[in-house]
Amino acid sequence: MKTILVMVMKIVIDTNVLVSSLSRHSVYHWLITNLLNGKFNLYITNEILLEYEEILKAKYSPSVAHNFLIALKELPNVYFTQVYYQWQLLKDEDDNKFSDCYVAANAEYLLTHDSGFKILKSIPFPPINVVSLDEFKELIRL
């Protein structure tokens, strides 16, 4: 019998992308739907989770934030990542947690709408593949 190994894409999602894809009425809701259906693996850190919580509480409500984060923690394709090295690659120090998680997880894509992340495209090491949601959708052919 032949065993087939299926590799699932490893991603890190910036908070602005998460917020823009959460509502069922958003054109980007396909991201959350595909996350819930296990189409890719999401890598997060405690710092990222805290930022998700803070922004979701402000944008929606404490109960929406709480319920979404509980669901996120329960998904089998969401992995907590331990960051051992802080690269400090971005001017906005608060965004470094996403690039650090990307490197620690050996992720394939960092999804963001934040133009401050564009600098990562010009940094040769560590290589970080930054894409927008539209670019990611093309990559996974939805």
Throw out a few tags for this protein:
142 residues, alpha/beta, 6 helices, 42% helix, 11% strand
Q: Could you please say which CATH topology applies here?
A: Rossmann fold
What is the count of β-strands?
A: 5
Query: What class, by secondary structure content?
Result: alpha/beta
Would you state the CATH class? Alpha Beta
Specify the biggest β-sheet.
Answer: 5 strands, parallel
Tell me the fraction of residues in β-strands, as a range.
5-15%
Taken in chain order, the helices and strands follow as EHHEHHEHEEH
Q: Give me the number of helical elements.
A: 6
Description:
The chain has 142 residues and is of the alpha/beta class. It has one domain: Rossmann fold (3-Layer(aba) Sandwich), CATH 3.40.50. Helices cover 42% and strands 11% of the residues. The chain contains six helices and five strands. The protein has helices at 15-22, 30-36, 46-59, 62-74, 96-105, 133-139, and strands spanning 10-13, 41-44, 78-80, 109-111, 130-131. It has a five-stranded parallel β-sheet, sandwiched between helices. Helix 3 packs antiparallel against helix 4 (62-74). It is globular. The chain starts with 9 loop residues before the first strand and ends with a helix.
